[in-house]
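Q: What would this chain look like folded?
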Amino acid sequence: MSFKLEPISHYANTQFLSTVFLDPLYKVAYLNPKKDLPLQGGNEKSVLVLVYANYPLPPQEEILLFKILGSIKLEIKDIYLLKIDPNFPFSLGRILKIIQPEKLLIFGGESPGQIPGKWEKYQPVSWADTQILWSDPLPLLESDPQKVLKNKLWTQIKGIFLS
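A: My prediction, written as structure tokens:
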């Protein structure tokens, strides 16, 4: 099968990506939603971890991320990890419809405005059967000498994941 670069919106079977990502994209046609999103992990526990970061993560941020996940007894096999460039527009609501996680942990980014409700960092919300917790970016958590932000995150994350 040969592939050619075309705007995704020209293909019915790739329409999902034109709704997930808000800008016109040029990608290889014939994509599978879960296979072709840049997801890592096995999602055995129906958890999506969304990290707004330049890709790939610097080693110290990746170590912090996996320490946080380890503290709530999660490994890469338990989650889907999705890294998004902070400058790349996409629809969080569409990603939630595709992946349908029970829990979503967001590191960084702006308020997820595509989803209704009041959004504050470190305040859990529920939307479409998904518990969501929005945190500061990993670099800010990493450089938190007083651990104020890490403590805020821990207070909320243990209620969602360890209760």
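The longest strand covers residues 47-52.
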